[in-house]
Amino acid sequence: MKYNSCKYTHTDNELKEMQSLLIDSYSHNSAPINWFFSRFQNWHYAHNFNRSEEDIKILSDKVRLWRSNNGKLVGFCISEYGEEEFHIQVNPNYREVEKDIIQWINNRHAGNRTTFALEEDTHRIENLKSAGFHYKCHSKNIYAYDMSRALPKTQLKQGFRVSSLSELKDFDTFFTTKDATFPHAGSSKQRFKTKSQAPGYYYDWNIIIMTPDEQCTSFCTVWPDWKNKMAEIDPVGTHPDFQGKGLAKAMLSNVFSRLKNGGINMVYIDTGAEPFTANFLYKSLEPVNKYKILTFIKED
To answer: CB neighbours of 82 closer than 8 A, spacing ≥ 6?
Structure first.
C-alpha cells in the first residue's frame, strides 16, 4: 500500500487524530510500541502549547504525518524536544508504513539522527538496520504493573499523609519540591500553567505526600486512560532532603490502590535505564513486565 506523507500544521484536528491513534493502538496483550497518550499531552501542553508562530514553523519540520489513500492517519513521527531525535508512532495494523517513516528520518541532512525501538520489536529493528541505523544503547525502561495482583503494602511515617493538588492550599510548596527534584527542567510553575490545561490532567490525580508541617515532599502525576482501563504515572519525584525514606514507594502504593478501586487494570511507569537509581524503587513495586527501549543512531 502506498501512503501519503503530510506536513504537520499544528491544528486541533491533527492533534485529536494523533492522540486517538495512540489511544486506539494500545493493547494489554502486546508490548507498548507507541507512546502512551499522556506523553503526547505532555509534549503538546508542557513543551509546545505557547509556541510562537516562528517556533511552530520550526516544530512542523520536526513532526510528520502519514495517511492512507482514504485520508486515515496511520502513523506519525515526532521530535519531542525539537531535536534530531525522532519517535515513531504507528497504527499496529499498518506497520509497513514504518519503512516510509524511517526513510523520512534517513533523508534528513542534519548530522546524527536518533530513533527508538523496543528490545523485542524485531520488525522495527530490522527496518532500522536495513536503513543504515545502528544500535547505540539501552536508554529507558518501561515498567508494567497489573492491578489484579496483590499490591505492595507500605506505611508512612507518623504525621505524614497522602494528599492531592485538589486539596493543596499553598502551591508554592509543590513548585519548590518539583524544582529541587528536577533542577534542570526549568520552572515548574511555568510548565504547570500550560500542562494543567491538558485534557488528561486532573488535580485529583496529582498525588503528593505532605509532612506534619504541611510541606510537600513527594509527588506524582497520574494520567488515567479510562477507555483502555490503564494509566501512566509521570513524573515521580521526592525532594532531595527526603529521599531514601520510603516516601515515594508509599505514595505509589497508595496510587495503585486508588487506581485499582477506580477500575484501572494496568499501570505503566517509564524511567532511565540502569544505573539510574529510580529503577530500584520501580522494581520493588513488583512489575509484571519490564520493557527495554533501545536507541538507534544514523551518523553522517
So the answer is: 58, 59, 62
